[in-house]
UniProtKB/TrEMBL annotation:
Family: Belongs to the alpha-IPM synthase/homocitrate synthase family. LeuA type 1 subfamily.
Stretches assigned to the Pyruvate carboxyltransferase domain: 10-272
Protein name: 2-isopropylmalate synthase
Species per Swiss-Prot/TrEMBL record: Paenibacillus lycopersici
Pathway named in the protein's UniProt entry: Amino-acid biosynthesis; L-leucine biosynthesis; L-leucine from 3-methyl-2-oxobutanoate: step 1/4
Length: 523
């Protein structure tokens, strides 16, 4: 029997669908909110704040459906300290088995003077009245004195005391502008917990914005000062520079739990899928160097790092990406890579070279790395083919033609050469867009039974000679395979990336995709 943990359990309150959606350009349709909410429940989120019910009929309907459907998660109805907001939040969440009201009103003098145009006494009175009003409908009331990190400490304590007396059960102290330093934010929690009468009867929560890049650090400071709930968003999205990043906070706690003395109930294996889902739904790309889920977070180009990783992963990684659902692709080949990493990557595709061939491939590789910066697998395999004068790729894209217009379907044709027979065959297809037409052609030409999952396009330069990088991922039997290509023609780059992904699938499975023989398919 497993011994119970002595660590403090930190509840994770997710506001991706409310505060996160307030990011400019991140608006979600109601049906998208519901899909993401299901994934958040699968991730193990303790509390979901699904939206601002009073803001629109669509928002109300989304909050209502999420409240009805997600029976195992606590739902927070968000409302200003206004009766109409409270009524809408109560009605939208009434079918949730577990729910709370989350009420807020400003507490800093600058907000009171210029936004609310009310005195401190008036704000305390409103807070009291609205908490008491909300308490008629729900047992759990979370109260947030907005901008508390820039408010007078004595006034925050006064507000907290007042709402606790009226029945508030959770006190959230927001760093609304991301202004606080960790030591200041932690001190605020200690002062309020020590100075507000009734504080021992309530939970404390932290809600941090990332304007100075301190949201995760401030949240950890709040935990050390007694907070037992942290409010986060997936990918750290939110107004301005965003909120405390769910994946960064959770993995900081998980990785350093013995030092922090805390842990969460998050299902780590769902982190990557949740991140990708939110990024796609909101059309918000994830920065390459984003901790945990960024493209470069677990990739290494330096030859010294690559050598260490090949010997023992722990030499240069403090987390296991696969435990978070992140595909294992730790070595990226570029101009800083060494022969050992190149040899290791080629061996993964069944390509073995003698010393002379390896030297020739390495020289070709260095020249290509100066041109492309990162050398994808399909290019590396092609370099090996040029050296050995053998085709190592199962399939090669020989030719591509696309016909596009405003009044007709897009028409494409591709010519593919198959390795075993060296036969070239041409396939045609149509689509509503040129890329769709090309993919339809390639799916006929390379019938590996994989689902086209995702395409990312990035500009690598500017001006008339700009090149685009295409990254395509396909899924086969719950395994993800990726291909990358660079070209001035982004349609051609996308096609080459798709072929590279298919080749990776075939090479990684030893030419057996579990359906029929690859060579037979092209005959």
């Amino acid at each position: 029997m497993q011994e119970p943990s002595a660590n403090q359990i930190i509840r994770i309150f997710d506001t991706t669908l409310r505060d996160g959606e307030q990011s400019p350009g991140a608006t979600l349709r109601p049906e998208q909110k519901i899909v993401i909410a299901r994934q958040l429940a699968k991730l193990g989120i303790d509390v979901i704040e699904p939206g601002f019910a009073i803001s629109s009929p669509g928002e109300f309907a989304a909050v209502q459906q999420i409240s009805r459907e997600l029976q195992g998660v606590e739902i927070a109805g968000f409302a200003r300290a206004i009766r109409g907001d409270i009524d809408a939040a109560v009605k939208a969440t009434m079918d949730a088995p577990r729910r709370r009201l989350h009420l807020f009103i400003s507490s800093s003098d600058i907000h009171l003077d210029f936004q609310l145009k009310k005195s401190r006494e008036q704000v305390v009175s409103i807070a009291r009245e609205m908490v008491a009003y909300g308490k008629q409908f729900v047992d759990e009331i979370e109260f947030s004195p907005m901008d508390s990190s820039r408010a007078g400490r004595e006034f925050v304590i006064e507000m907290v005391e007042a709402v606790i007396a009226e029945g508030a059960t959770i006190i959230n102290l927001p760093d609304t502008l991301g202004f606080a330093l960790p030591e200041e934010y932690g001190a605020m929690f200690r002062d309020v917990r020590a100075g507000a009468r009734g504080a021992e009867r309530v939970q404390f929560s932290a809600h941090c914005h990332n304007d100075l890049g301190l949201a995760v650090a401030n949240s950890l400071a709040a935990i050390s000062a007694g907070a037992t709930q942290i409010e986060v968003t997936v990918n750290g999205i939110g107004e301005r520079a965003g909120n405390c990043s769910l994946e960064e906070l959770v993995m900081a706690i998980e990785t350093r739990k013995s030092a922090i003395g805390a842990e969460t109930g998050i299902v780590a294996s769902e982190i990557y899928e949740t991140s990708r889902m939110v990024s796609r739904a909101m059309n918000f790309p994830i920065a390459y160097n984003k901790p945990i889920v960024g493209r470069n977070a677990f990739q290494h180009e330096s030859g010294i790092h690559q050598d260490g990783l090949l010997k023992n992963r722990n030499t240069y990684e403090i987390m296991d990406p696969e435990a978070m659902g992140i595909p294992r692709s730790m070595i990226v080949l570029g101009k800083h890579s060494g022969r050992h990493a190149i040899k290791h990557r080629l061996a993964a595709f069944g390509i073995e070279l003698n010393e002379e061939q390896m030297k020739d491939v390495y020289d070709r590789f260095k020249a290509k790395a100066d041109e492309l910066k990162i050398v994808p697998d399909d290019v590396l395999v092609r370099l090996a083919s040029e050296t050995t004068e053998q085709q190592h790729d199962p399939y090669v894209l020989v030719d591509l033609q696309v016909l596009a217009g405003t009044q007709r379907a897009r028409i494409a044709s591709v010519t593919i050469r198959e390795r075993e027979s060296q036969e070239e065959r041409t396939f045609a297809g149509t689509g509503t867009g040129p890329l769709e037409a090309v993919i339809h052609c390639l799916q006929q030409a390379i019938p590996v039974g994989a689902a086209f999952e995702d395409l990312e396009l990035h500009s690598l330069s500017t001006g008339e000679d700009a090149r685009g990088e295409a990254s395509v991922s396909i899924v086969h039997r719950q395994q993800r395979y990726s291909g990358t290509a660079v070209h001035k023609d982004i349609i051609l780059a996308s096609a080459q990336a798709y072929v590279a992904a298919c080749n990776q699938l075939i090479l990684s499975t030893g030419g057996n995709n579990g359906e029929t023989d690859i060579a037979a398919k092209s005959s």
